[in-house]
Amino acid sequence: MTLKEDSSVSMFIQIYKEEISLILSSIANERRLEILTLIYKTPAEFNKVQKLIGLGKTALSHHLRNLVGNGLIKQSHRGIYEISQDGIFMLDAISTGFRKTLKRKEIDALNKAKTIRRIHSKEIVPQIKEDKTKIVKLESMRVASVRAISDSPENDAWTKMESWAIKKGLLDDLEKHPIFGFNNPNPEPGKTEYGYEFWIKVDEKIDSDDIIRVKEFTGGLYAVRSCKLNTIGKAWTLLKQWVENSKYQIGEHQWLEKAINPGSSEAELMLNLFFPIKELE
Prior knowledge:
By secondary structure, the protein is an alpha+beta fold. It folds into three domains: about 5-85, Winged helix-like DNA-binding domain superfamily/Winged helix DNA-binding domain (Arc Repressor Mutant, subunit A, Orthogonal Bundle), CATH 1.10.10; about 105-120 and about 140-215, Alpha-Beta Plaits; about 125-140 and about 220-280, no CATH class. It has eight helices and twelve strands. Helix 6 (about 85-120) packs antiparallel against helix 7 (about 155-170).
């Protein structure tokens, strides 16, 4: 079977899998990619490539032979190395494909961020059944915190958190970097302004900066209940009543709200309320 008989992507790759594997294995090396990008626009002789790359002669010769052998670069009779047309095609394809991947990840992160903001600002009312109260222990964690006080503090705080978290890649994995929010301070009768604070779990590499403040959350025991956003007040009341009639008492650690599966459709979204509790003394 020839390429003309079936030009689909899968069949094309199946026919040329050995040749494709050789080329991919050739560029699946950071040093060889560095060489290709170095001579992408400006051809260079061996000594110049060696000076710019910082490799020994033996190692550089090995990489150059590999690239020449796979047709990604060529060497003139004067010893000048330059990228081949195939090499140009390959770098352009990698660049174009990876740009699309980065753009998709950015869009996914923005969509997650938009949904999280809408959940915590109570714009979305998930269509779910209220869950029974359950006991959950949150372990201690390091969190990046952003707080705002305004007429719409959820939006204001999240705008800052969103731009910062996207640059750090934290919104790509919300299991590893869960997000919590809470009023701080609570709304008061007759006042339009109140506060809202967002937390996102981070590792020890993250430090406080001009946007976020790093805090150490000690964790604790919680009574947790899932609710629709339009019944959040009722859900908090039910949690308080449940605690008062249980073997627990109200704890001093931070109460929290957490958006669940923010990347899902609005009909499937849910919010968990974390009511702090402790054993009766």
